[in-house]
Model the fold of this input.
Amino acid sequence: MPDTRQIRYLLVTHIPFARNADGGIVLDSLWARDLEGLCGGPWKLRVCGPELKTAEGMKTWGPSACTLPADGPITFTGFPPVARRVDAWKWPAIRSVLRREVAQADLVHTSNFFQPYVGLSYAHDLAVKLGKKTLFVIAEDFDDMLGWEFVRTGGTQREIQRRTKQLELLHDRVARTASNASLTFLHTPAAVLRYRLHTRNSIAIRQPGHETKDVISASAFESKCAYLRAGKPLVIIAACRHKWLKGLDFLIRAIGILRTRGIAVEARLYGSGEQGPELKSLTARLGLNAAISFPGSLPPGEAVYQAIGDGHIFAMPHRTTDFGRAFFDAMAGASPVIAFRTPASLETVRDGVDGLLASLDDVESLASAIGRLHQDRELLIRLSEAARERALNNTRSEWYRLRASWAADLFAGDPNV
Done:
């Protein structure tokens, strides 16, 4: 590839950012890690997203925000944030920013068009019209996720029907974008199943959040194995938002069933969310306060891996076909995953190799899976070894290297780059 200049890589997003007094960029910490990972390719990365007037009150999907330096390798340009339908008057200004940025870019990267930013698909459509290279990311099975969090909570039948129609339109919009994108990354097994036939050119992504240094050390792992062989009570770790779709209430009930069978386990349910008070109430009602604790949220990175490494099983009884990076976080801590059997977990957790899968929404099946590992410690150790080995070979930087090479391949033989 000629070295006359770098590729101008434009990432258009609905994720907000703000600038502090020194010009630093304040944004979600998990998002920042992803952006820094994109800097490894042969390009200059520019992010175009909603710019808030202040970082105060910024909502993040991780537990915290961070600041990137003003003179860092990533440049940011903002457009007016949109929160509600009454903000429609801002769209002409947003499209003006997108027209300018797309015109200057070589590669235009967009992703799931969540409400209220479905209009960001304008950037992709314009890039296609101008003959630019396009990268489209379907980061999750949002169809199922929004069915849970958006459609199901509509309240009235009329509102549910309206939201169902909105979701259908969003699905069609995403399928159309995938059909003419130069390259589509499908980030979950369920997204592969739902959209692979719509894509012009697609690759499945299984990107974890950890690096080799984050994987539990050999000595710490040996200590964990010694504890397991001693037959001591197992510690179950869960780390996620406390929401109904995460299935934590099933986990609490499963621990209650195990207790009636004389199986004592400890559970630490990290995270926070609107279901938290009900989960604590359920724990108290079942008489499990001594067995189940709620330590709160963890900052991303080392604290998460340490907490998981201190446990013996990672439980993620997620009830949708979506999944996060939590499965891979668990493997970095050499903790086998116990999850419900869904299209996401079937293609991520190797049942009987680095985890066990229980029947969906089946608390008895979930309890039996935990009980099996309590009884068969050698099986638990084999699963733990396989999880750790997989984590060592499946790192964030390796996936960023692969992603960058695939995106760069779009320009192979292009005399203008």
